[in-house]
Structures are given as structure tokens and as C-alpha cells.
């Protein structure tokens, strides 16, 4: 956990309350820890001349590290706030307010609003994810129509390309021969996708270009109810960049199953709800856009197929291995294409 500097905390609280803060007493809860960054919740009371003000805030500390194909991702969320992109985006999806930004050599810190709400795989299901996808479609359509195309702090290539390059390079040797317990049908399908990847990517270039969040899933979505209205917050913008419409929609679908214990039989229902919701959001902004089953399958295969095959090799227990196979079958085999 990164050390908390009292001067930074007081400056943050001063900006938060628009008031002079004399002191603060607080406790810390680590929400996410790691060697390259951590996220902590600070909560307590701020002391002013007029009494105590209770507070809860988030401190996100990120250390420099080199993500595959995206060396600036470690500081991207900091730059999004610093350059004010968070204020320019349509408010159909919200980012937490930022109260203070700090930077030192190889480290950034974002002091931001704490959002209390419904989040995570156990709380967000088909209807919620479909609504989030709809709002994402609205945001991405707006950005396609009016957003800047040359912001230097955003990733400047579609994430589906780097994902394919990463996981195909890891898997191509293993997929060249039978894998114990892994269906040959799936192995041949994935190899065929790799063989035709350049042509498929060329077809993707006809898709509308937009801002992709790059990590769009249930743990990064927070639904907050207030005065009978629902605000949806989207957090963790480290992977944000320019990409194709539809990439993030496929991501939120797959995250709902790849990293959960949700019944795979629900995948077709979730797919229809999420993809329909996303396309509805895009079309509501005047863009004629649809995602046919073939497009969804192609994005899935190149962005997720080889990654899930790699997970199959990584897992030791039979249950998660079986789950990998079931997801691949549900998304790639012909009998499931029109479900």
C-alpha cells in the first residue's frame, strides 16, 4: 500500500468540500493491491472551523510498467483526467470526479470520488449489462461523430489486434498439434481464424472508429440509485483507446462468463440482450449500425478465442477446463451461431 501524505489528503478534501480543511482523521481499506499499483478507500472525518464533515474517497496509485503493446497504459487514466477528457464525454456513462492529481517519477496518483453502488458479477446480470451496453453504444456513437481522433494519450490502435497478437503467439505452437482433452473441432476453428486473421482485420476496418474503454466489464461498472434515477459509472480507463464499435460490447459479454461461475446455458440470452442493447444505443444517435452473429463471432475469436484456449492449458482442474470448452463451443460452433 502506498503511503498517504496528509498534505495531499487535506488538499483533496478542500477541493471536495470547497472548504478550508484543518485536519482529518481517517481509516484505510485496500480495495486492490499489487506490485504495479493499488486502489485504496479512505474514510473518516474532515475537521473544519464549522465542525466535522464525513468523507469517503478513493486513491488510485499506479507505478510505471510495460503492458504488452501499450507501454503508456500505466498513466493513461491520469492523463484522461489531466487533459479533461472525462468532462468532455457524454454523461450517459459517468466517471468519478477527480479532486487531485499527483505525479512523481514513474508514479501517478488520482484522488477521486468514491462511488457507492451495485457492482460486480454477483450483482449485475443480463438486464444491467444490457443497459450498460446501451449507454456505451450512445457514448461511442457520440464520440464517433464528434470526438477528436488524434488524442496522443489514448491507445492508437484497436485492442482486438493486440489481443490476437499476444494470445496467438502464445498458442500457435500448441494449437499446431492435438491437445489432450481439447476438441479438435475447436482447434481447427481457431487455426483457421489465425490463417485468415489479416483478411478479417481488413473487414473490421469498415467498422466505425470510436473511443473504446478497453476493460468494459461488471467489476468496472457501478450502478448508483439516487432520487429514483440510475447513474452508471465506468471506472478504470487504463486501457482506453481508439478502436472498433462492438469491441467493448463483446468484452462485457465474455467477462460475464469467462471470469465467473455463471451457467453457460445463459450465454446466448446474455449475448442477445447485450448486443441488442449496444446496437440500440448506437442507432439512437443516428448511426445505422448492427452486429450480426458473424461479426460477434469474429471479434470474439480474435480477441478471446486464443486467450480462452490458453486458460484451458493453464487450469489444472477439470471443471474450469470444461468451462473453457463450453464457452468456445457456444461462441464458435455452427450449431450455436444462430441461437
Give the secondary structure arrangement, pairings included:
Layout: H1 6-17, E1 23-32, E2 37-48, E3 51-63, H2 76-83, H3 85-88, E4 98-104, E5 107-113, E6 118-119, H4 126-146, H5 159-175, H6 184-195, H7 197-204, E7 209-212, E8 221-226, E9 229-234, E10 241-244, H8 247-258, H9 267-283, H10 293-314, H11 318-332
Mean pLDDT: 95
- Overall geometric form: globular
Gap from first CA to last CA: 47 Å
How are helices and strands ordered from N to C? Answer: HEEEHHEEEHHHHEEEEHHHH
Query: Briefly, what CATH class of the largest domain?
Result: Alpha Beta
Mind summarizing the main beta sheet? 5 strands, antiparallel
Radius of gyration: 21 Å
Percentage beta strand: 15-25%
DSSP helix fraction? 40-55%
Strand arrangement, largest sheet?
Answer: 1-2-3-5-4
Please provide the count of β strands. 10
CATH topology of the largest domain: Aminoglycoside 3'-phosphotransferase, Chain: A, domain 2
CATH structural architecture of the largest domain: Alpha-Beta Complex
What would you call the structural class?
Answer: alpha+beta
Amino acid at each position: 500500500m502506498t503511503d498517504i501524505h496528509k498534505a495531499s489528503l487535506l488538499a483533496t478534501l478542500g477541493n471536495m468540500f470547497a472548504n478550508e480543511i484543518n485536519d482529518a482523521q481517517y481509516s484505510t481499506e485496500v480495495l486492490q493491491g499489487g506490485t504495479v499499483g493499488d486502489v485504496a478507500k479512505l474514510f473518516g472525518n474532515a475537521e473544519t472551523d464549522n465542525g466535522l464533515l464525513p468523507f469517503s474517497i478513493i486513491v488510485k496509485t499506479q507505478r510505471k510498467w510495460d503492458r504488452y503493446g501499450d507501454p503508456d497504459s500505466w498513466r493513461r487514466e491520469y492523463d484522461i483526467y489531466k487533459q479533461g477528457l472525462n468532462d468532455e464525454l457524454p454523461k450517459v456513462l459517468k466517471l468519478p470526479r477527480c479532486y487531485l492529481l499527483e505525479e512523481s517519477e514513474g508514479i501517478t496518483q488520482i484522488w477521486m470520488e468514491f462511488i457507492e453502488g451495485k457492482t460486480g458479477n454477483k450483482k449485475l446480470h443480463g438486464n444491467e449489462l444490457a443497459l450498460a451496453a446501451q449507454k456505451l453504444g450512445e457514448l461511442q456513437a457520440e464520440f464517433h461523430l464528434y470526438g477528436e481522433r488524434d488524442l496522443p494519450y489514448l491507445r492508437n490502435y484497436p485492442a482486438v489486434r493486440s489481443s490476437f497478437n499476444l494470445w496467438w503467439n502464445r498458442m500457435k505452437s500448441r494449437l499446431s498439434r492435438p491437445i489432450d482433452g481439447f476438441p479438435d473441432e475447436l482447434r481447427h476453428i481457431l487455426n483457421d481464424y489465425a490463417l485468415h486473421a489479416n483478411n478479417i482485420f481488413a473487414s473490421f476496418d469498415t467498422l466505425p472508429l470510436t473511443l473504446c474503454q478497453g476493460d468494459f466489464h461488471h467489476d468496472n461498472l457501478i450502478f448508483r440509485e439516487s432520487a429514483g434515477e440510475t447513474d452508471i459509472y465506468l471506472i478504470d480507463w487504463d486501457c482506453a483507446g481508439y478502436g472498433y464499435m462492438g469491441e467493448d460490447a463483446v468484452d462485457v459479454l465474455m467477462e460475464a462468463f469467462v471470469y465467473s461461475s455463471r451457467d453457460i446455458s445463459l450465454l446466448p440470452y446474455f449475448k442477445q440482450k447485450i448486443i441488442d442493447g449496444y446496437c440500440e444505443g448506437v442507432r439512437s444517435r443516428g448511426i445505422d449500425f448492427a452486429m450480426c452473429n458473424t461479426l460477434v463471432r469474429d471479434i470474439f475469436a480474435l480477441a478471446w478465442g486464443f486467450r480462452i484456449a490458453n486458460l484451458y492449458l493453464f487450469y489444472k482442474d477439470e471443471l474450469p477446463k470444461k468451462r473453457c470448452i463450453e464457452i468456445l463451443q457456444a461462441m464458435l460452433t455452427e450449431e450455436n451461431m444462430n441461437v
